[in-house]
Design a protein that fits this description.
By secondary structure, this protein is of the alpha/beta class. The chain has a domain of 249 residues: TIM Barrel (Alpha-Beta Barrel), CATH 3.20.20. The chain contains eleven helices and ten strands. A seven-stranded mixed beta sheet has the order 2-3-6-7-8-9-10. A three-stranded mixed beta sheet has the order 1-5-4.
Length: 371
């Protein structure tokens, strides 16, 4: 791993704006499982007053032997995921995956978006698992933890390699992304879609370009995400929109406009998720509010707490995604009515991805089986 040089911090590991330009988090507190904490310390040469270096991105190899992770959560509509990356350079301040970086000894703040773990051999490991005689096909969600089309994918192309493996096996999968880069793989996705083997969702939080840049500094702009929906739909790829997350008193008023814009671009299905603040995200989001929306901070947090029994977040299955109470029900009603008016989520007898086409191809250089 390249030697790390963290930018000088002030109290609570808050990083100066000139050092974290283009990043989402404001701080880099040590992960909750660590026994030691990093604190700023002047070396006697007025180092804390000097101009800090920009926080850089570091890539580290993830040598996991398996890439398919299994999910047992009853409120998530998939059983398997493949994540070629841990951490995400998009830097979305609200990302529910941030706390997972603490399991690696990193912070959920700036480390999550700058200390990235990469599974360079993910495609090879995936093929090995799909060939295992005990493997039973089930829809795979690509990027259930972090975005598979984050900026480093442009050069590494690991996601494309994974899709090529899935195509080789006729294996169904779904994608949720914030990146226009997904259109790079239209050739593969289109061929898979012709056999009902793929669904793609673009996640849109806001149509406000300036707000999006502050919340999701390295994700594609809202306009580019809508364009991605259009291009994917024109290529015959079933595409939907996720209004996620819905942030009370900040983006909630945009729900109908987001759904309408996505429907006009070609989306035929939609979903939404309320803002979630598990573990370290509570503090990270508060830090962000203090800088970006100080006048709305109390109102936003009050509405969030009204959906979680007075707490910032309740992790109960079936509750965590949508919340409960009058405000949560109002959002649910607005979503249902907008979808009905726009013709999103039409009732179909069966629109599930196909599992019956799964085949294990003949391994190069090996004899065919008699059975």
């Amino acid at each position: 791993m390249e030697k790390e040089t963290l930018a000088p911090h002030t109290e609570n590991n808050w990083v100066r704006p000139e050092a974290r330009r283009g990043r989402g988090a404001r701080s880099a507190d040590t992960g909750r499982f660590e026994k030691e904490q990093r604190i700023p310390l002047d070396d006697g040469w007025d180092s804390l007053d000097q101009d800090p270096e920009p926080v850089k991105t570091f890539l580290m190899a993830d040598k996991s032997k398996k890439v398919i992770a299994h999910n047992t959560s009853p409120d998530i509509p998939f059983d398997q995921t493949v994540n070629p990356y841990r951490g995400c350079e998009h830097g979305c301040i609200y990302c529910y995956a941030r706390p997972t970086h603490c399991y690696l000894g990193f912070s959920a703040g700036l480390d999550f978006e700058t200390r990235l773990m990469v599974k360079y051999d993910a495609a090879e490991r995936l093929e090995e698992e799909l060939r295992h005689r005990r493997y039973h096909p089930a829809v795979i969600a690509l990027g259930g933890n972090t975005d598979i089309y984050q900026p480093i994918e442009r050069d590494l192309k690991i996601t494309r390699q994974i899709i090529e493996v899935l195509k080789k096996f006729n294996h169904p999968f779904g994608v949720v992304t914030k990146s226009f880069l997904v259109t790079r793989d239209i050739d593969l996705l289109g061929e898979m879609a012709s056999r009902n083997l793929v669904r793609v969702f673009l996640s849109i939080t806001t149509l406000n370009h300036r707000l999006a840049r502050r919340m999701e500094p390295r994700a594609s702009t809202p306009e580019r995400r809508l364009l991605a929906i259009r291009k994917l739909t024109e290529a015959g790829i079933p595409t939907g929109v996720m209004v996620a997350p819905v942030i009370p008193s900040l983006t909630d008023h945009e729900m109908e406009n987001i759904l309408a814009a996505a429907q006009e671009a070609g989306a035929r299905s939609a979903g939404y998720v309320m803002l979630r603040l598990p573990h370290e995200i509570k503090q990270l989001f508060r830090e962000w509010l203090e800088e970006e929306a100080p006048n709305r901070a109390d109102r936003i947090l009050h509405l969030l707490q009204s959906m979680h029994g007075g707490k910032d977040y309740k992790a109960q299955f079936g509750h965590r995604m949508k919340g409960a109470g009058p405000y949560a029900e109002l959002i649910a009603q607005r979503f249902r009515k907008a979808c009905r008016r726009l013709g999103l989520n039409p009732q179909k007898r069966d629109d599930r991805l196909r599992l019956d086409l799964f085949r294990v191809p003949l391994d190069d250089g090996k004899q065919m089986s008699l059975f």
